[in-house]
Structures are given as C-alpha cells and as structure tokens.
Amino acid sequence: MLDREKLSAIARNVSFDEEMSKHTTFRIGGAADAFVNVENALEIERIIHFCTETDVPYMIMGNGSNMLVSDKGIRGVVIHIGSGMSKCRIEGEDVYADSGILMSALAKKILEANLTGFEFAGGIPGTLGGGIYMNAGAYGGEMKDIIENVTFICPDGMIKTETADKLDFSYRHSMFMQGGYIILSCKIKLKKGDYDEIKSAMDDFNSRRNEKQPLNFPSAGSTFKRPEGYFAGKLIQDAGLMGYSIGGAQVSEKHAGFVVNKGGATAKDVLNLIEHIQKTVREKFGVDLEPEVRLIGER
Questions:
Q1: 279 and 53 in contact (C-beta within 8 Å)?
Q2: Which of 19, 68, 86, 246 has its CA at a distance of 20 to 30 angstroms from the CA of residue 191?
Q3: Among 118, 23, 119, 130, which residue's Cα sits nearest to residue 78?
C-alpha cells in the first residue's frame, strides 16, 4: 500500500492518481498511483529507498515518447526525469548535460555553440536519458557515436560513470535496458563547426521528418524495430495495411511504420492493431516484426 503522506514528505513535486495520457506522446494511458517530477539524484535515491522499504513498485520515465501505458494505468510510483533535471553546460567541444533535457532543447544549445555532430538528434522527440537508454538514432547518426561517458545509478545504489565502450551500445539497445540502472547525465564529445552549415543540416532533417512522418497525430514514433534486410514501414505498406484502423488507433496514411492515435485510442486498440500488423506481415512475408514501443503498466 502506497503511503501518500510519507511520499509527499520526501518528494517535492508529487501528484497522485495522475493520468498518464498527459505525459506520453501517444496521449494514451490510465492513472499512475503517484507521479514525481524529480530534481536531483538524491531525491531519486530517497524515493527508491522509500519504495524498496515499503514494497511499492516504481519506474523511471523521461518524455514518454517511446511508451504505451496500459488503460489500467501504473501501480506504484512513476519517477519522471524531466524539467527538474535538465541542466546543460558547454566547455569547448565538450557538452555536459542532465538526462532530463529534451533532445530538441539540447540541439539548440549545441547549435548556438557552433558544435557539429548532434544534428541528427535535434528532432528526436524525447529526453537525452531516453535517447541514451535506447541508443536513439536518425539520418545515419546514433547516440553511441557522440557519447563519451554516462553517469548513472546502479542497481545496488552506487553512482558510477562509464565510458561509452562499456555500455553495450548497439542498434536501439544499451546496457541500461537490462533494468535497474537510472541515467543521470552524460558527457558528449562534438567538434567545432560552422553555424550556418549546422543549422542548414538541422533544418533539412526537420523538413524531411515533417514531410515523411505523421507528426500531426499523437504517436510513440516508429512502432517497430527495423528487421534485418527490410524496412518495417514498407513491409506494412506492401501488406496493404496503410490506413488500417482498430478503434482510435490507425496505421498512418503518411508512413506505415507509425501507429497513430486518431482520437480516443486506447492502449487495447493499439495493442490489437500491433498484433494484427505482426500476424499479417508474418503470413505475407515470413518476417517477424518486433515492437520498438514499450508497453508499461498494469495488464
């Protein structure tokens, strides 16, 4: 049982029975028992200690851009690493940033410092911590290419800093997916560049993203990982599923690799649509599509 009074005493920005649809880019999800926007590592450790001692489940989230929260919501405490942990400083070609900063906000600061190498990430709709967690990438770049080191809380409570080569980065994967790790901050190594060239590249990527992706509807980004030797969106399109709907969830008519919330979609709608896509693509092409979106919450 969650002791709301005790949690309120140790967490500054806590809200109870918080609708998670307000905190995910899918705009889907039931209520979390408690939602805390944390401000530092000490507060995170206090909340985890409280949860561990009282046998209350907890989870970490950033911008909610790669998750589907169940209609029944989330039992326990959601620790939100966002605006409360979004500081950034730039020293020469080195960028030191908290995990809660939005990738788009960080890209603007990096542009102002005339640094190149981060252009690919400027349009990724998530926090830096989320980008590191899943080794986010776009337009030929990945987080692993620019990360020098990451500072994080280990499952045993120790705070460590490790270089990128020790973090098991691969396609849409990192060591942090094994569970129990909480990303706090990182150091990014970039290079000096020309402001106009950097801005031109960012504008080009954003233009291509706007042109190809269904940004006018809520979604969790690409729904499936890229299967080896194929493109998920093309397989789904070739299977005749573009525009296919279940409830308020639809295979985007603009890019078949995206499932979008056309209005009033439930998590169940999305899950049923994902299963239908997987079954159809498997039957037609013999390819198994693995979801990139994470399902969170009470089943």
A1: no
A2: 86
A3: 23
Task: Kindly state the tokens that stand for 83.
Answer: 């605006």
* Helix, strand, coil fractions of the chain, as percent rounded to 5: 35, 25, 40
Both structure tokens of 157 = 């409570």
Please, what sign has the CA dihedral across residues 70, 71, 72, 75?
positive
Q: What CA–CA distance (Å, rounded) separates 103 from 276?
A: 32
Closest C-alpha to 250, from 238, 266, 234: 266
Considering Cα of 169, then 44, then 160, then 180, what sign does the dihedral take? Answer: negative
Quick one: which H or E segment has residue 278?
helix 267-285
pLDDT tens digits, 27-38 = 999 999 999 999
Q: What is the spatial distance between Cα 59 and Cα 289, in angstroms, rounded to a whole number?
A: 26
Model confidence over 151-201: pLDDT tens digits?
999 988 899 999 999 999 998 899 999 888 999 999 999 999 999 999 999
Q: Look up the pTM and report it.
A: 0.89
Give the active site residues. Answer: 172, 222, 292
